[in-house]
Recover the amino acids of this structure.
DNA sequence: GCAAAGATTTGCT
DNA sequence: GCAAATCTTTGCC
């Protein structure tokens, strides 16, 4: 594993530019016995600051979102729907609460560890359901192990204990590495998922970015891709295309 | 101090 | 395609 750390400076500019740079980067989690997990970031979503009514930060600083107001490169981790964690990479300069939600990762190494971790988070289930979950996860192709924001955290064992961690430090147990940058022509965009509570224009801003054609993107982006393929683009204004 | 909703995923109708 | 699971955070009394 010889890869360079992810440059913090790439996250300091505006969040939508940082989103395109974060695609293709590698998320790494070191574990005991050298069981390292790593994966390529294939889908992210931008939350751009106080004015963004879809962002957790739009009401100002709270105990939960405080990390978003800090320096770039830190992890903002929160619990959604009482059961799933979501990982964000903080962007922009201190004082501006912006971040990129990691929506999907394509596993590269430590895939067996990820399967085990996916099963581990189902521990609340009774024996019967747990058995079925174990069988389902065992059959999943590697590219579906982290193909959603909650699944990324499950596969990489990320929870609130990782909130505030600096992801740009070389050799940190949870970190970002440079990976391989993605050409602009290979990036698709579309509206953010699950933010129906936000009014326009925030609801329809094309601030979800993914690597076109990646088999590891989330369900929402696969759906958008199908629609984009079958849709006839009339005069323009279609945000969801490569 | 209590009630409501949520940056999701899964299984069933 | 829809609703359940589940608990923290936030908003209001």
């Amino acid at each position: 594993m010889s890869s360079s750390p992810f440059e913090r400076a790439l996250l300091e500019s505006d969040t939508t530019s940082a989103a395109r740079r974060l695609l293709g980067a590698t998320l790494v989690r070191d574990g005991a016995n050298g069981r390292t997990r790593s994966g390529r970031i294939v889908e992210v979503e931008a939350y751009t600051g106080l004015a963004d009514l879809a962002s957790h930060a739009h009401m100002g600083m709270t105990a939960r979102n405080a990390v978003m107001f800090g320096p770039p490169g830190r992890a903002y981790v929160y619990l959604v729907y009482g059961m799933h964690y979501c990982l964000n990479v903080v962007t922009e300069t201190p004082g501006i609460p912006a971040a990129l939600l990691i929506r999907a990762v394509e596993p590269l190494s430590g895939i067996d560890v990820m399967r085990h971790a996916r099963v581990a988070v189902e521990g609340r289930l009774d024996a019967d359901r747990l058995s079925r979950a174990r069988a389902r996860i065992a059959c999943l192709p590697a590219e579906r192990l982290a193909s959603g924001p909650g699944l990324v955290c499950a596969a990489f064992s990320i929870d609130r204990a990782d909130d505030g961690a600096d992801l740009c430090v070389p050799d940190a147990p949870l970190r970002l590495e440079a990976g391989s940058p993605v050409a602009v022509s290979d990036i698709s965009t579309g509206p953010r998922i699950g933010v129906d509570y936000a009014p326009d224009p925030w609801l329809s801003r094309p601030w979800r970015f993914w690597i076109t054609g990646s088999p590891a993107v989330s369900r929402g982006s696969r759906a958008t891709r199908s629609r984009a393929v079958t849709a006839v683009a009339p005069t323009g204004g279609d945000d969801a295309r490569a």
In short: Helices of chain A lie at 15-22, 111-120, 127-139, 149-155, 219-230. Residues 225-242 of chain A have pLDDT under 50 and may be disordered.
